[in-house]
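Annex B. Sample input.
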Amino acid sequence: MRSSTFILAALFAVPTVHAAHTKPPSAAEFGKIFTATANAYASAHHDGRRVSRPHCVQAAPGQYMCAYLAFTPANGPQCHLMQARWTPTAASTITVTLSGRTQRCGSVREAIRSLP
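Annex B, continued. Sample output.
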């Protein structure tokens, strides 16, 4: 779960430029914001880990579930699933409520079905 910890640290530590948006973004836009925020944090801290290919769905306004790839220099790509909330007035615009690895990550549905 090391890369999950990285993602959580990235989202709690860096307020993004998107904080001015109070209306929740679409699921696709949320995925782009999540990826940009996590990767900017890693880059700023000279960390080789990156996330890509997010597939997000919106359960309710401001509530999301996303499947994505997390790349680590040592382990290569790993599939992850995350549940998060849009919190533009908090210290971070994204609050992760649940996160972990999965066997597949092409879509949220694939990631959930691959859980043991």
